[in-house]
UniProtKB/TrEMBL annotation:
EC number(s) from the headed UniProt entry: 1.5.1.5, 3.5.4.9
Subunit and partners: Homodimer.
Annotated pathway: One-carbon metabolism; tetrahydrofolate interconversion
Protein name in the entry: Bifunctional protein FolD
Known role: Catalyzes the oxidation of 5,10-methylenetetrahydrofolate to 5,10-methenyltetrahydrofolate and then the hydrolysis of 5,10-methenyltetrahydrofolate to 10-formyltetrahydrofolate.
Keyword 4Fe-4S: no
GO molecular function, one term: methylenetetrahydrofolate dehydrogenase (NADP+) activity
Record organism: Liquorilactobacillus hordei DSM 19519
Tetrahydrofolate dehydrogenase/cyclohydrolase NAD(P)-binding domain sequence ranges: 138-280
Annotated Tetrahydrofolate dehydrogenase/cyclohydrolase catalytic domain residues: 5-119
Family: Belongs to the tetrahydrofolate dehydrogenase/cyclohydrolase family.
Length: 283
């Protein structure tokens, strides 16, 4: 029987624990707070931000909303970030990506105080992660590590193949796995022998944004599959980067879409904000 790796269940469990941690913080006069900056009118971004607000409120985390029009300048954003960086009431700062073209996203990310960088995208945090001394972890890869741990899937010594090398998923995922003693192969759109590599994976992590791209013939029987992708198929249904119907029967364990990696990303964002607030009491 293939094990279905249930991200909803673990996310729920983590959020219940976080509720208790925010109660303790509030009892000591600390209201954990996340500042969320949204620029422009991108539909998906607005939905993500709304979901983050709802999830934060449910665990007792305060959110501060900063909405800017599409025409906002880099200077305006930097001015706000500079203020939030030193505001003792703000523990986490999140800038929803993507940003409009006139704004240099790398510059904005680098302007965030690394100790408030809940997304773990600041170059200092990226560097520390790669040096195996992480201070802030990118939410999606962190959530994947927690899912694997919860299901007692040990990565040490395993060959993990990652498909996708983005800054938010593939690259930090590789660093986390390497830190956990996995043998890691990173593949991408220019990889010439992709199938040959994916077939070698003990654990396959796919983050490319191509609906049901990975088929049965791409994996070996007994593989553990983590599907990060979120795509709409021709029928408008939300599907992953892995063809679940084909791959699930031959896998040992697999994350579904929806209900796998997605819920964990948000749980990790909340957890990191609470952890940052706990620094105030030496937690
Ligand atoms: P990006 O578009 O930033 O990166 C995609 C990566 O996939 C690139 O490295 C690209 O290669 C690679 N790629 C694209 N096509 C192929 C191919 N045919 N073969 C091999 N590699 C390929 O995407 P993200 O990392 O931001 O997101 C990936 C997916 O994960 C999306 O569906 C996104 O919606 C989802 N996602 C889900 C999250 C969640 O919480 N569940 C969080 C973040 C993302 P190259 O570098 O050569 O261009």
């Amino acid at each position: 029987m293939t094990e279905i790796i249930d991200g909803r269940a673990l996310s729920h469990k983590i959020r219940q624990q976080l509720k208790q941690r925010t109660v303790l913080l509030r009892a000591r006069g600390i209201i954990p707070a996340l500042a969320v900056i949204l620029v422009g009118s991108d539909n998906a971004s607005q939905i993500y931000v709304r979901n983050k607000h709802r999830a934060a409120a449910e665990i007792g985390l305060a959110t501060q909303d900063f909405k800017f029009p599409d025409t906002t300048t880099e200077e305006e954003l930097l001015e706000l970030i500079t203020k939030l960086n030193v505001d003792p009431k703000v523990h986490g700062i999140l800038v929803q990506l993507p940003l409009p073209p006139q704004i240099n996203a790398a510059k904005i990310t680098a302007a965030i105080n690394p100790i408030k960088d809940v997304d773990g995208f600041h170059p200092l945090n990226v560097g520390q992660l790669f040096l195996n001394d992480p201070q802030s972890l990118p939410c999606t890869p962190h959530g994947i590590m927690r899912l694997l741990a919860e299901h007692q899937i040990n990565v040490a010594g395993k060959h993990v193949v990652i498909v996708g090398r983005s800054n938010i998923v593939g690259r930090p995922m590789a660093a986390l796995l390497l830190n956990a003693d996995a043998t890691v192969t990173i593949t991408h759109s220019k990889t010439s022998n992709l199938r040959e590599l994916t077939q070698q994976a003990d654990i396959l992590i796919v983050a490319i944004g191509r609906a049901e791209f990975i088929k049965k013939a791409d994996v070996k029987p007994g593989v553990v599959v983590v599907d990060v992708g979120m795509n709409r198929n021709a029928a408008g249904k939300l599907v992953g980067d892995v063809d679940f119907t084909e791959v699930e029967p031959i896998a040992t364990a697999i994350t579904p879409v929806p209900g796998g990696v997605g819920p964990m990303t948000i749980a990790m964002l909340l957890e990191q904000t609470v952890r940052f607030a706990e620094r105030k009491i030496g937690g």
